[in-house]
Amino acid sequence: MAQTLKRLGIMGGTFDPIHYGHLVAAEGARHAFQLEKVIFIPAGRPPHKTGRKISDPHHRWIMTELAVASNPYFDTSSIEVERPGYSYTIDTVREVRNLYPGAEIFFITGADAVLEILNWKNVNELLEMCWFIAATRPGYPLGNLKRRLAGISPEYVKRIIPMEVPALAISSTEIRARVQEGRPIKYLLPEPVEAYILNRGLYK
Ligand code: ATP
Ligand code: MG
């Protein structure tokens, strides 16, 4: 059913697993851009992550649900994990637009991911449909981002808004490595997500 919202955030990611870096970036964007809701959308089969075996979408979706439960502004959607084939952001944004007609959409990404945006499918249409909030994460300074965007048309560049978030050097890669090596992951991600990983034996 279509819903009325003025400003809506989308946080996309593989979320294998979701961690405080994602949550801090989304909450920062929610506050800075007065978003009424942020929908976390775990990717089904990300076209760019073909090298490594990605956890079952079901696990990633449940961990995302567990992670957002304590924030009344956060929600999840399984549209990507249910869609067959590769996940393209363009299809997701089109679908979200149909669900929330008239809402201004803010797609929240890390500055590393936004640097790849130029390789994304239908990037021009994407930039027409939504704003991109580029959260800086360690190692991806904003100056770098501006230089990389120098090549693209100014009307599209203005759709990409840099946002400073507290530098959290947390990544899913690091968390997976820690689990594998038996090092602690406590305080890097919400406790229910940690419990889920340990109970299901993920990343062993
Ligand atoms: P991986 O290490 O497997 O690539 P990841 O930690 O980068 O995982 P993703 O699911 O790939 O997590 O990221 C989803 C989105 O969240 C991307 O836009 C990414 O740039 C952003 N992101 C991830 N970690 C952080 C962080 N610590 N701070 C800010 N943004 C982040
Ligand atoms: Mg990543």
TrEMBL record:
Keywords: ATP-binding, NAD, Nucleotide-binding, Nucleotidyltransferase, Pyridine nucleotide biosynthesis, Transferase. GO terms for molecular function: ATP binding; nicotinate-nucleotide adenylyltransferase activity. Belongs to the NadD family. Residues 10-178 form the Cytidyltransferase-like domain. Catalyzes the reversible adenylation of nicotinate mononucleotide (NaMN) to nicotinic acid adenine dinucleotide (NaAD). Pathway: Cofactor biosynthesis; NAD(+) biosynthesis; deamido-NAD(+) from nicotinate D-ribonucleotide: step 1/1. This is Probable nicotinate-nucleotide adenylyltransferase. Gene3D superfamilies: HUPs (3.40.50.620). Its EC number is 2.7.7.18.
